[in-house]
């Protein structure tokens, strides 16, 4: 068995590294700079530590267990298992964009052979693997599905920046296009996932299970975000309310916040799209999305109200934004909602300086056209907004960064009485 992992990002690399502890693995990615970086033992996403990566790296000619990373299609021609781990984003209108899946399926189709199995890990709505990806594999390879080649699905459950719940410690859902292939796929993952596996009866069931995981979280966060808006009007601290309610054993401990990243803020749109194609309008799912997508502008408006109450002239004011990644202690800026807060502040005529020791300035500039610094700025600001709870911010005396009338706004709700306002 020789495994090719297609796409070496936040999902693909940790999986390829794990498989390489027991199998001969080729990590394939079209980004040549990324390949060179990985073959030198460096992962800029920080998901795989350098010593763990170097421990499994092997030369191109190596035949045993280990990982070789390549951008050359010829290097995956002799693989028998192909695991596709490319992103599944939405476009500017929040419609699912399956382009990465189509392109990666074309790539695999060019080297697909009789008896091979193609496993998809990307989050999709039920039916994408068999109705969208398989036809591409058939067209490009000239082979017949479930006769010449087979498919599997095992949705990713990577939590970027989490060094406790790593890929091998999270139970994995698996599925195959036939019962026999399902068992093969399940045994493959079972051999490296210490947390175990759950074999779903069909690929569609596994696809559905993944897409509702994050939709459920999205809806629950939307609920507490709405509570935060209500309690703010009442002059009640939402976090105090949640702490009191959390004393009941079955209370779900969700907190208000900005919902970004590559999963929770995206996956519900995949399920909603499929539902609408079938003639059903999903009210709760889309209501949760609308509310969560509005939170960036809400945070900005709350900060501006506090500034006005303190006698600060908003137009031409200066704000320091602490953090721009979508979550704490992680360099991932995909679909970060901090940029929504910044854009709303700029609409008020405010100048925003962004400090984030984790984010790549080049990536932020490319994705959002914003300047970010990795160095702690000097000077005084009319407002300091804690947007991301990076560990580097824990011991910062934020009072040193604000003017006499300046305010501190806590998006994460971790500063307590030190903040003038919070979600």
Notes on the protein architecture:
By secondary structure, the protein is of the alpha/beta class. The protein is built from 13 helices and 14 strands. The chain has an eight-stranded mixed sheet with strand order 3-2-1-4-5-6-7-8, sandwiched between helices. It has a six-stranded parallel sheet with strand order 11-10-9-12-13-14. It is globular, with a radius of gyration of 23 Å. It starts with a strand and ends with a strand.
Q: Give the topology string: H per helix, E per strand.
A: EHEHHEEHEHEEHEHHHHHEHEHEEEE
Which geometry do the CA atoms define? globular
Could you tell me the strand content as a percent range? Answer: 15-25%
Structural class: alpha/beta
Provide tags for this entry.
alpha/beta; 8-stranded mixed beta sheet; 13 helices; 14 strands; 37% helix
In brief:
The chain has 423 residues and is an alpha/beta fold. Helix content is 37%, strand content 15%.
Per-chain topology:
Blueprint: E1 2-6, H1 12-19, E2 24-28, H2 32-39, H3 50-56, E3 66-70, E4 81-84, H4 99-109, E5 117-120, H5 128-141, E6 150-153, E7 172-176, H6 179-190, E8 197-199, H7 203-234, H8 238-245, H9 267-277, H10 283-293, H11 295-309, E9 318-322, H12 338-347, E10 351-355, H13 361-368, E11 372-373, E12 381-386, E13 402-410, E14 421-422
Parallel strand pairs: 1-2, 1-4, 2-3, 4-5, 5-6, 7-8, 9-10, 9-12, 10-11, 12-13, 13-14
Antiparallel strand pairs: 6-7
